[in-house]
Amino acid sequence: MKRQILSIILCVLCFSTISAKDEQGRIVVSPDGSGDYSTLTEAIRKIRGDFDDPVTIFVKNGVYREKILINATVNNVTVEGENPDSVIISYGDYSGLNNMGTSGSYTVKIEGNNITFRNITFENTAGRVGPAVACHTIGDRIRFFNCRFLGNQDTLYTGGRNGRLYFKDCYVEGTTDFIFGSATALFENCRIHAKADSYITAASTAKETPVGYVFYRCDVTSAPDVTRLYLGRPWRPYASTYFIECSLPSSILPAGWENWGNPDNEKTARYGEYDCSGPGASTAGRVAWERKVSPTEAARLISPSFIYTRTLTWDPEEPAK
Question: Is the pLDDT of residue 10 over 90?
Fold first, then answer.
């Protein structure tokens, strides 16, 4: 009898975690209390448990001052904001604060799989105090559409060497190494904005990973006082980063890439450009160890079937499953 009662209670609890939805089948979060929940943390806690059915969390305009962990039990979820400029998840932790380190300085950390974000701003407000992550990904098949990533050093941490990420129509800003990590990520039609003389990317791609970062038809811009900007440097020896059909500003240094003070990285790093434009696009002065990208390879690099197929086939344009 006790086991039967316990089973009934568990069933009720599981049902209650996903039953609070609006007329469109969405869980609604609103800071004024008009939704199902007033914080994203509360909403995410209610959908943990590896549910197979997709769940949508609709987030109304507001500034959500929360440090959010979307753990590995959260899968098949879409988080959709009302407006990308007005739905802001904001926090101000940074490396060195209470000995948390870079990995702990996130505003939002995503460990789950098959998660989509639309119209959301991820912000770290710590300022120029060292590494301070706005968004840290660990999971696989994570997509961002029309999202903003605001910060300074280490704004976007794409962790998880088996992670496959897709960014479309997004905005990413920062100072030093503000896009970094080991995941495979395709950035399509995004704006990448450098706020200081430094490095845009610091990939740590594993040797066995076919490709790390691909920026496709992105607009790279920089603040007016920026004059010495590198496309990237290798955080790990086999770092992989490519710019395909991107617009590059005059602040990009002729060398384009830096070896992180280790000449041995020049033998292993996988860096390249193809058909870029703008005042910083000339490859005449690029480092000798930059790879030459052929039209065939460029077409392959921007193909999801190449980038995202390892053990699973995943098309980032397909709806979440």
Answer: no
The reported pTM is: 0.90
Q: Which residues are catalytically annotated? A: 154, 177
What confidence score (pLDDT) does residue 1 get?
46
Distance (Å, whole) CA 92 – CA 98:
13
Which pLDDT tens digit goes with each residue over 75-130? 999 999 999 999 999 999 999 999 999 999 999 999 999 999 999 999 999 999 99
Residue type, 46: K
In the chain, what are the domains? 2-307 (2.160.20.10)
Tokens matching residue 111: 């460990």
Phi, psi of 28 (to 5 degrees): -110, 130
